[in-house]
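Appendix C reproduces, verbatim, an entry submitted by the partner laboratory led by Prof. M.T., so that reviewers can inspect both the input and the predicted structure.
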Amino acid sequence: MKLALLNDGAVAKITDMSGLPADTRKKLMVMGILPKTTVTLIRRAPMGDPLQISVRGVSVAIRKQLAQQIEVEVA
C-alpha cells in the first residue's frame, strides 16, 4: 500500500522507498523517514496536499507526490 492512501490516524511501517530518486531518498532519510520505521498519518491539508505525518516523534509535512512513491505496511 502507498503512504498517500492511508486514512487519517493510520499507523504503518515503511517497507520500500526505492521508487524515489536518490537525492530525495537521502533528504527523507535525514528527516528520519527510513525503511522499517513506523509512521502515523496525522492529517491531510484541505486540498489533499501536503500530508502531515509523525515519524519518531516529529511531525513532518511531505508532498502527496512523494507519499505515492513510498510503500508501507499497515500495522
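The chain is about 15% helix and 35% strand. Additional entries are available on request from the coordinating office.
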